């Protein structure tokens, strides 16, 4: 699987809210950037080698600048602190071309967004797209405080289409049910935010048709099952090699152990970088990337966390 690599240059840095930076990135050679659709994210390689994923929050039609919003995470694993403290205009960063695991529905009657904190970033791109194309939308935006809430100025003109909730409401089941109800009977619901919010919305939408609700995970679900499971065998169709995946090793690790140069980034089942086509066999999907319909089709597997229901899988590798 080849992914287009980009050399980017930091073109702007501004404070969007308390502990939230808005960072502009342009192509290092000044050429137009690869196109993306609303909901996409960018995989950035930070100067210390860390790989991090940031949703694009600008105008998807702008091919000159990618905009990302970076919150300073309290439990930062190094990425947000580095971007908040050590990045300056003119710095060069490597990236992979944008990828969208959170695409908008093409035929929804309306779009209802639920954003928690920095989870507003992909949703801002979706709102910009809705405004350009005249599609109806509404937003419930859960924030710890207005001071820390990004894009409030951009959202102010939209009146009661936007409901901002303070942290006191965050995670209350009654409030979540009311937010979910705003999607109506024919709208598509999109949610991005902390795992606790996402899991509450997931529970509240369990009766929705799978294609009517979409999630973008920034971190692995607290309830995600990435456990070892049983061993199984993979056959690599291109080379004809057979590789055993023992209990206690992920499929990705088994591929790496065998010297296969398999793609990956997050290793948590949330970015989609390690997706591989399945030619035969039935995966045991444990990721948070593929939609319910994609998982049911069994056409691909997320190798960093998913396993096999069948004794063998044949992969397009
Ligand atoms: S490496 Fe990110 S989903 Fe597998």
Features:
317 residues, alpha/beta, Elongation Factor Tu (Ef-tu), domain 3, Rossmann fold, Ubiquitin-like (UB roll), 5-stranded parallel β-sheet, 7 helices, 18% helix, 30% strand, binds FE2/S2 (inorganic) cluster
3D architecture notes:
The chain has seven helices and 18 strands. Helix 4 (173-181) packs across helix 5 (195-204). The chain starts with a strand and ends with a strand. It has a six-stranded antiparallel beta sheet, with helices on one face. The radius of gyration is 20 Å and the shape is globular. It has three domains: 5-99, Elongation Factor Tu (Ef-tu), domain 3, CATH 2.40.30.10; 111-216, Rossmann fold, CATH 3.40.50.80; 232-315, Ubiquitin-like (UB roll), CATH 3.10.20.30. The relative contact order is 0.12. The protein has 317 residues and is α/β, with parallel strands linked by helices.
The CATH architecture of the largest domain: 3-Layer(aba) Sandwich
Arithmetic mean of pLDDT:
90
Q: Decide which structural class fits the backbone.
A: alpha/beta
Q: Could you tell me which ligands this complex binds, including any ions or cofactors? A: FE2/S2 (inorganic) cluster
Strand order across the largest sheet: 4-3-6-1-2-5
Q: Which value, in Å, is the CA radius of gyration?
A: 20 Å
User: What fold name stands as the CATH topology of the largest domain?
Assistant: Rossmann fold
Name of the CATH homologous superfamily of the largest domain? Nucleotide-binding domain of ferredoxin-NADP reductase (FNR) module
Low-confidence stretches: none
Apparent shape: globular
- Number of E strands: 18
Percent strand: 25-35%
Number of domains: 3
Helix count equals 7
What is the H-and-E element order?
A: EEEEEHEEHEHEHEHEEEHEEHEEE
Assign a percent range to the helix content: 10-25%
CATH class of the largest domain: Alpha Beta
The termini sit apart by 9 Å
Largest sheet: 6 strands, antiparallel
């Amino acid at each position: 699987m080849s992914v287009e690599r980009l050399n980017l240059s930091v073109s702007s840095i501004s404070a969007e809210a308390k502990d939230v930076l808005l960072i502009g990135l342009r192509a290092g050679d000044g050429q137009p950037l690869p196109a993306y659709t609303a909901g996409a994210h960018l995989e950035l390689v930070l100067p210390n080698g860390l790989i991090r994923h940031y949703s694009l929050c600008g105008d998807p039609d702008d091919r000159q600048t990618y905009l990302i919003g970076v919150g300073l995470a309290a439990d930062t694993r190094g990425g947000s602190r580095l971007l908040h403290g050590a990045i300056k205009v003119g710095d060069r960063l490597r990236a992979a071309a944008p990828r969208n695991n959170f695409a908008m529905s093409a035929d929804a009657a309306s779009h209802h967004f639920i954003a928690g904190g920095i989870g507003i970033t992909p949703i801002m791109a979706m709102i910009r797209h809705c405004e350009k194309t005249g599609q109806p939308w509404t937003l419930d935006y859960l924030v710890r405080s207005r001071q820390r809430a990004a894009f409030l100025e951009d959202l102010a003109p939209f009146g009661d289409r936007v409901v901002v909730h303070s942290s006191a409401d965050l995670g209350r089941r009654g409030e979540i049910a009311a937010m979910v109800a705003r999607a109506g009977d024919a709208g598509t619901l999109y949610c991005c935010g902390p795992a606790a919010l996402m899991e509450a919305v997931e529970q509240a939408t369990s009766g929705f048709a799978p294609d009517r609700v979409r999630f973008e995970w920034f971190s692995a679900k607290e309830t995600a099952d990435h456990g070892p499971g049983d061993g199984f065998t993979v056959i690599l169709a291109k080379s004809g090699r057979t590789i055993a995946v023992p209990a206690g090793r992920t499929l990705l690790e088994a591929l790496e152990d065998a010297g296969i140069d398999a793609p990956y980034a997050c290793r948590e089942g949330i970015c989609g970088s390690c997706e591989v086509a399945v030619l035969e066999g039935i995966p045991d999907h444990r990721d948070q990337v593929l939609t319910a319909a994609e998982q049911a089709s069994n056409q691909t597997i997320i190798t960093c966390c998913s396993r096999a229901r069948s004794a063998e899988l044949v992969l397009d590798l």
